[in-house]
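#onboarding

Welcome to the new folks! Below is a worked example of what a typical request in this channel looks like: someone posts a single protein sequence, and someone else replies with the predicted structure as tokens. Don't worry about understanding the tokens yet, we'll cover that in week two.

Example request:
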Amino acid sequence: MVRRPRQARRSTLTPTSRPPRQRRRQQRMNRYGAQAQRHWQTYLPNRYAALIADGTDLNSFFSTLGDQATHQIEDLTRQLAGPDPAGEGYLDKLGRLNEARMAAEEQVLPELILIDPETNETSPAATQTPAAEPRTDQDDWIPMVEDPTDPRWQEIAEQEAAMNDDSEPPARS
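Example response:
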């Protein structure tokens, strides 16, 4: 039995039916760009509508905005993290870098991505009343203090001692 070589399959696309290179290489939006687009659509509808009315390519606009936020966050993260201390372990470094990234995001995102809703904006979120506002009255604040004279304190201390296999729970003062 003689085998004949297979012919390569030809594409059904002809040179004229292929999409232009520009369309195939559209900018991909990072998470900050997508977050900005959702936020602007929901909380800044007038600004979002103005972008549409101006004929702005939304994908390109929010991709660029997301890239700008990424670069600012990366730069600020490097500054906040600082140099590696001598003898720093892996988990310590990971914690330090994560803390620096979160602090950088906390500073950059409100400036570029999560812009405060404008007062003249009308959106469902802007018209809702806040569920609960933080209380500023210091007279109502009661600090949580560990009180060994409280009967529940001894009960909890005994339970913790049993779980930790301690010989005796702490005594009441």
